[in-house]
């Protein structure tokens, strides 16, 4: 038997590495298991999907491609003449790789600084207090731990009609590795990942078609915000086809022929590259020994309570492998909560105030209920909206597209949700998160003094508009 730890975490993604650091900070002897290794096999790669092939690299490409579009099309509006502008895709990818390397290396430094033991290999819970770690050479070592945290993450879903073909039919990971801009790009799935990756390559010159099986666009977003977002993305050149169910694909030479059905019947399109972005599934197969008593549902998610305890005492699970949105920040907060509980502290997490962001341009961000969800729950609501077209800072920024919307309880005035489409929406949504965390009313935000001129003033005006008191917009509601 190898070393014994107070806590062993399986997985070094945003849930696992954060839990490990927090546990170590709280004085617990902590180890974190990660199977991902560098291409040359020389070192363990920390950070999970988020840092390596998800959140961070995609944002690097989104930022670079957006600046390219601004320089090519928008700078002249500001009086900046740039001449002919081109994008070096390979250089853009190299920058992305360097950012990823810096961040993953930074986690290794944080582990060392906090005294976290990094264990290379594949972790498996074989008993209530035992984890087996199998390294890249097949050698298995058993470690004891008073507590175990499963943070194994998730992997992209593959669908039978479009089997992956290296370099041609790829998932989200493969889409981050293109070395040149495809002329015709197909994207299956109009979710967050599909829209972000479609935006990157659309900006760089691809003819992008997004095939979405669902009838509604971004159904998790407030209806008014989703409708405006769809209009803005269409204006940018994204061809988003809803109610388009993919039935098959065929690779012919360097092309991919995709078959799908819509309201008009059977259709066919040809692409140079195809990205499959139909969601992610929990990575839990083989992580828990059979007969241990840790329950999984039919999709592979581990059953946990509100504080991420599994059915086996001392074993917890966080992040993408449990219920709730598959978001890095949700996983991190769960990891912190579990570490605090293991250390003997009282901790909980408010799942009603987890923000979501789509990093297109403009960004789409939301927290809480949509107007439609609130009404479906039988809640009498009142809403306030404010367009960025009426914002002085938005005009100065050349970013007048979008709006901010607040949904409040008509009886109590408590904020139930906030939805924004606009420049920096991902930053501004924190105001809604904080307000809801403290149980604020729309009036609380309306009475708050906002800096001028800022994009956030749209949130202030939306709060004022809930009761018809918006200053910089014609009010359609009777003032009280």
From TrEMBL:
<dbReference type="InterPro" id="IPR006258">
    <property type="entry name" value="Lipoamide_DH"/>
</dbReference>
<feature type="binding site">
    <location>
        <begin position="326"/>
        <end position="329"/>
    </location>
    <ligand>
        <name>FAD</name>
    </ligand>
</feature>
<dbReference type="GO" id="GO:0005737">
    <property type="term" value="C:cytoplasm"/>
</dbReference>
<dbReference type="InterPro" id="IPR036188">
    <property type="entry name" value="FAD/NAD-bd_sf"/>
</dbReference>
<keyword id="KW-0285">Flavoprotein</keyword>
<keyword id="KW-0547">Nucleotide-binding</keyword>
<feature type="binding site">
    <location>
        <begin position="189"/>
        <end position="196"/>
    </location>
    <ligand>
        <name>NAD(+)</name>
    </ligand>
</feature>
<keyword id="KW-0676">Redox-active center</keyword>
<feature type="binding site">
    <location>
        <position position="212"/>
    </location>
    <ligand>
        <name>NAD(+)</name>
    </ligand>
</feature>
<keyword id="KW-0963">Cytoplasm</keyword>
<keyword id="KW-1015">Disulfide bond</keyword>
<dbReference type="InterPro" id="IPR012999">
    <property type="entry name" value="Pyr_OxRdtase_I_AS"/>
</dbReference>
<feature type="domain" description="FAD/NAD(P)-binding">
    <location>
        <begin position="5"/>
        <end position="335"/>
    </location>
</feature>
<protein>
    <recommendedName>
        <fullName>Dihydrolipoyl dehydrogenase</fullName>
        <ecNumber>1.8.1.4</ecNumber>
    </recommendedName>
</protein>
<feature type="binding site">
    <location>
        <position position="279"/>
    </location>
    <ligand>
        <name>NAD(+)</name>
    </ligand>
</feature>
<feature type="binding site">
    <location>
        <position position="59"/>
    </location>
    <ligand>
        <name>FAD</name>
    </ligand>
</feature>
<feature type="binding site">
    <location>
        <position position="123"/>
    </location>
    <ligand>
        <name>FAD</name>
    </ligand>
</feature>
<dbReference type="GO" id="GO:0006103">
    <property type="term" value="P:2-oxoglutarate metabolic process"/>
</dbReference>
<keyword id="KW-0274">FAD</keyword>
<feature type="binding site">
    <location>
        <position position="320"/>
    </location>
    <ligand>
        <name>FAD</name>
    </ligand>
</feature>
<feature type="active site" description="Proton acceptor">
    <location>
        <position position="452"/>
    </location>
</feature>
<dbReference type="GO" id="GO:0050660">
    <property type="term" value="F:flavin adenine dinucleotide binding"/>
</dbReference>
<dbReference type="GO" id="GO:0004148">
    <property type="term" value="F:dihydrolipoyl dehydrogenase (NADH) activity"/>
</dbReference>
<comment type="similarity">
    <text>Belongs to the class-I pyridine nucleotide-disulfide oxidoreductase family.</text>
</comment>
<dbReference type="InterPro" id="IPR001100">
    <property type="entry name" value="Pyr_nuc-diS_OxRdtase"/>
</dbReference>
<dbReference type="InterPro" id="IPR004099">
    <property type="entry name" value="Pyr_nucl-diS_OxRdtase_dimer"/>
</dbReference>
<dbReference type="Pfam" id="PF07992">
    <property type="entry name" value="Pyr_redox_2"/>
</dbReference>
<dbReference type="InterPro" id="IPR050151">
    <property type="entry name" value="Class-I_Pyr_Nuc-Dis_Oxidored"/>
</dbReference>
<keyword id="KW-0560">Oxidoreductase</keyword>
<dbReference type="InterPro" id="IPR023753">
    <property type="entry name" value="FAD/NAD-binding_dom"/>
</dbReference>
<feature type="disulfide bond" description="Redox-active">
    <location>
        <begin position="50"/>
        <end position="55"/>
    </location>
</feature>
<feature type="domain" description="Pyridine nucleotide-disulphide oxidoreductase dimerisation">
    <location>
        <begin position="354"/>
        <end position="463"/>
    </location>
</feature>
<keyword id="KW-0520">NAD</keyword>
<dbReference type="InterPro" id="IPR016156">
    <property type="entry name" value="FAD/NAD-linked_Rdtase_dimer_sf"/>
</dbReference>
<dbReference type="Pfam" id="PF02852">
    <property type="entry name" value="Pyr_redox_dim"/>
</dbReference>
């Amino acid at each position: 038997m190898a070393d014994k730890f107070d806590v062993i975490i399986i997985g070094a993604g945003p849930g696992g590495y954060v839990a490990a650091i927090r546990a170590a900070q709280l004085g617990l002897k902590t180890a974190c298991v990660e199977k991902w290794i560098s291409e040359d096999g020389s070192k363990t790669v920390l950070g999970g999907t988020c840092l390596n092939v998800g959140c961070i690299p995609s944002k690097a490409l989104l930022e670079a491609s957006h600046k390219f579009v601004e320089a090519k099309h928008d700078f002249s509006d500001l009086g900046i003449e740039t001449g002919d502008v081109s994008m070096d895709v390979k250089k853009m990818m190299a920058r992305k790789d360097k950012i990823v390397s810096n961040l993953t290396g930074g986690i290794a430094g944080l582990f060392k600084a906090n005294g976290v033991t990094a264990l290379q290999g594949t972790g498996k819970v074989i008993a209530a207090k035992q984890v087996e770690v199998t390294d890249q050479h097949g050698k298995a070592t058993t470690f004891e731990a008073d507590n175990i945290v499963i943070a194994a993450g998730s992997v992209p879903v593959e669908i039978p009609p479009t089997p992956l073909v290296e370099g041609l039919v790829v998932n989200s990971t493969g889409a981050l590795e293109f070395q040149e801009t495809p002329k015709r790009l197909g994207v299956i799935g109009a979710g967050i990942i599909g829209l972000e990756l479609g935006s990157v390559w659309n900006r760089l010159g691809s003819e992008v078609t997004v095939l979405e099986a669902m009838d509604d666009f971004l159904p998790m977003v407030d209806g008014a915000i989703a409708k405006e977002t769809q209009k803005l993305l269409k204006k940018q050149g994204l061809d988003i086809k809803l109610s388009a169910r993919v039935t098959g694909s065929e690779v012919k030479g360097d092309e991919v022929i995709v078959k799908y059905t819509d309201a008009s019947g059977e259709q066919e399109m040809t692409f140079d590259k195809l990205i499959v972005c139909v969601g992610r599934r929990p990575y839990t197969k083989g992580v828990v020994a059979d007969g241990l008593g840790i329950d999984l549902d039919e999709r592979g998610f581990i059953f946990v309570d509100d504080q991420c305890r599994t059915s086996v005492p001392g074993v917890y699970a966080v992040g993408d492998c449990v219920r709730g949105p598959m978001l890095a920040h949700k996983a991190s907060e769960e990891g912190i909560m579990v570490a605090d509980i293991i250390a003997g502290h009282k901790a909980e997490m408010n799942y009603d105030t987890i923000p979501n962001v789509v990093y297109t341009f403009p960004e789409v961000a939301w927290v809480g209920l949509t107007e439609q969800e609130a009404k479906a729950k039988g809640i009498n609501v009142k809403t306030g909206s404010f367009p960025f077209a009426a914002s002085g800072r938005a005009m100065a920024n050349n970013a007048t597209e979008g709006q901010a919307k607040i949904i409040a309880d008509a009886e109590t005035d408590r904020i139930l949700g906030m939805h924004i489409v606009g420049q920096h929406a991902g930053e501004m949504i924190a105001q809604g998160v904080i307000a809801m965390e403290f149980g604020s009313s729309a009036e609380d935000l309306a009475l708050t003094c906002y800096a001028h001129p800022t994009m956030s003033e749209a949130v202030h005006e939306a709060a004022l508009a809930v009761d018809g008191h918006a200053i910089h917009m014609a009010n359609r509601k009777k003032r009280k």
